[in-house]
Design brief:
The protein has 365 residues and is α/β, with parallel strands linked by helices. It has 2 domains: 3-78, no CATH class; 81-331, TIM Barrel (Alpha-Beta Barrel). It contains 12 helices and 17 strands. The strands form 3 sheets. The chain has an 8-stranded parallel β-sheet, covered by helices on one side. A hairpin with a 4-residue loop joins β6 (67-70) and β7 (75-80). α8 (245-255) packs parallel to α11.
Amino acid sequence: MANILTDYKGGYRQALIIKNPDGELGKTEGEKLLILKDQLIFLSDYYSVPLDEKNKAMFLNMQEGDIVEINDKGVVFQTFFIEDSDACIFMTGNCNSNCIMCPSSDKERSIDFGNRREDIFQYISMLPADLRNYVVTGGEPTLNPDLFLEVMGVMAERFQQAEALLLTNGRSFSVLSFLEKMMVKCPPFLTVAIPLHGSNAELHDYITQAKGSFTQTLQGIKNLLNKKVSVEIRIVVTNVNKDNITEICEMISKTFPSCLRVNFISLEVRGNCYKNCDEVYIEPRESFLKSKDGIRTLIKNGINVGLYNYPLCCIDPGFRFLCRKSISREKVVYAPECNECKLREFCGGIFVSTLNVKKPELYPG
């Protein structure tokens, strides 16, 4: 959740939260942020910022080992929660696809992210040695191949026991020489998650707005599976592909039966999804109903299935065991009618951006 530090003039910073420093507070390696009762102190240069009541509550609730990012306008984002032990390595917001339901906007994807190497490796250096999980993501994280391979190598060496998830459109892995380079750097517990938007090139390429992406994506998945890399296939269910879901699942069952799992994704109404809402939006309940036959097809063929971003009440009881609490804590919200629902503690909720734009049909029990 983002807050603003009033009168902040410290420039862009990433900082590791410190609450109980030992010994003398001298110069530190990397940025560390000491939280006191009424002020913050950056230990690299002793720049201090007073805390108002709103920010005081946010910072005092943070734990030692959390990580924050502060932009030059003083907007604060918490980028790592030590209690979750789940890190996000954000490579870039740029992408070589422009999916019509992407939660990022055209503007966000066109930002010049420049050379993020220093910021990325500073963030990695702050992560705890016993990190349990991390995701490498974008945009499309492989767009800068050299930086991507360097990051994968460092993560594999430093966090040898952590489970790694790479979120990618898979197109880069249609180039076998690139995949072979990644295999050298490959973390030991790696899963590559790739979306498949249609059972044919016409539909898939329409959704990605990238001609040839269907062929590249299929080849990328095939190459990864041939190299024995775990692949998770994602199906983002929209109003555009809702009548093709069963065919997608049939194709997966025949072509990629060795994939690790298939996750169905309900929409986050933000960015392109907001811009194209009239065309792409589908209620979570209808999204599930359109996917039921496909889910059965996958399960029948021995393929694991998950449901991401779906409120439990929108899913038939016999399928609710497939639901995951997948919405990150800074994005999740519950509608007022959820307050008395018996399932709330087990439910993954709704994206706050979706609830701001749409009023999803819910069926609290």
